[in-house]
Amino acid sequence: MKIFFVLALIVLLSGLPAWAVPNSLIAAEHVVYVIPLTGPIEPGLHSFLERSFQDAERAGAQIIILELNTPGGRVDSASDIRDLIFDSPVSIYAYVRYSAISAGAFLALACQALYMAPGSSIGAAELRNITGEVVGEKEISYWESQMRTVAERQGKDPQVAAAMVRREIEIEGIVAAGELLTLTSAEAEEIGFTDGIFSTRADLLAHLGYKDASVIVAEQSPAERLARFITHPTVATLLVTIGLAALMIEVMTAGFGLAGLISVLAFGLFFGGHIIAGLAGMEVIFLFILGVVLLLVEAVFPSFGIIGLIGVTAIVSSVVLTASTAEEGLRLLATAALFSVLILLLALRFLKRTGLWSQLVLQFSETKAQGYVGPADMTNLLGEVGVALTPLRPSGTAVINGERADVVSEGGFIAQEAAVIVTAVEGTRVVVREKKMSGG
């Protein structure tokens, strides 16, 4: 009887409209996926977010909360992540926990809505190059249009977003001309540039209707953390610098030593990190290994630089193909090459004081004081007559001017004890021919 009652209750509930089912039953099925976006925005972040968005979709998440605390970073990486956000089948909301500066502001505006924590800030999206200088008008104009676009898409004032990019934009009561706009959470709320201020994630979820939802927080794998660290422009340049300097030292020395190991480790980290980040494939490693092999071949079997040039081209190509753009790759390589030469010069000065210098430069001379005796001058034997002590076929030994000497005939066989005459002296090589005795 009890089993019948339970089955009847299940059937009854299954036929009820959604509003008749208790909220607790619906909420139990809700999943919220939280993705922390911390640190600089660089190529390695794209791989982590792409994987996290896919995991959220597989987990059946209704929404994704992108929690931001970033000083900004690369525009190209931010643009790629923007595309991931736009293409996600799961709604993505931005929650600025601490700060969303520069490219971080761009990503916050790319989400479906923008929420902020008290005391957080957003803005300062002025575009600068790797040296810290403001870029040209062409790049600024494009970046401004991108900031305006995402702001309009989210229903925010595009002029406010543009003022985060250009100092010359003035908005009365918000920012004066010559100042770059950065908004605090309170200022953003006052002008309607945020969809709400919430002290905690729980408060935000309650506002969105997911108070009792199951929350999954994405975590970076060790490989993803390593990839993000390695693909940072400064770290990537440093690794290539160390790799090139160590490679040059290794090519100049015999065998495979510490410099070779350091070079392999540096380039292994560089290429490995970029492969994990999805910026390169195994072909770049093949090109690099080919280049190194060709350089070693050139060092052992000189070919007037042809093989070496091909090797250098292969190494350059492998680094350039790893970068996001060819221009960036060439700039990275040029910077690394400059610093690697400086490191090499410093290393050579240090090596002069150690025993390792003897592997690069001959440190001793062979003198009489050390027991070395050079080859004797044989030119005085030219035209002299002697006797063959052994058959000359064509080389052998002869006695000339009372001294034994290694000789070689001009080509024919000369019998033992035959008279010979010296016809040429080439260094230590004494050439003789048989001297025919005249009859009397």
Helicity level, as a percent range? 40-55%
From the 3D structure, determine the CATH topology of the largest domain.
2-enoyl-CoA Hydratase, Chain A, domain 1
| Unreliable stretches covering 5 or more consecutive residues | 1-28
The topology string of helices and strands comes to HHEHEHEHEEHHEHHEHHHHHHEEEEE
CATH superfamily of the largest domain: 2-enoyl-CoA Hydratase, Chain A, domain 1
- Report the major sheet: 7 strands, mixed
Question: Helical stretch count?
Answer: 15
- Taking all Cα atoms into account, the compactness measure Rg is 39 Å
CATH architecture of the largest domain: Alpha-Beta Complex
Q: Output mean pLDDT.
A: 81
Give the overall shape: rod-shaped
Instruction: Report the CATH C-level class of the largest domain.
Output: Alpha Beta
| Strand coverage percent | 15-25%
Overall tally of structural domains: 3
Distance between the termini: 151 Å
Number of strands: 12
Helix/strand structural class:
alpha/beta
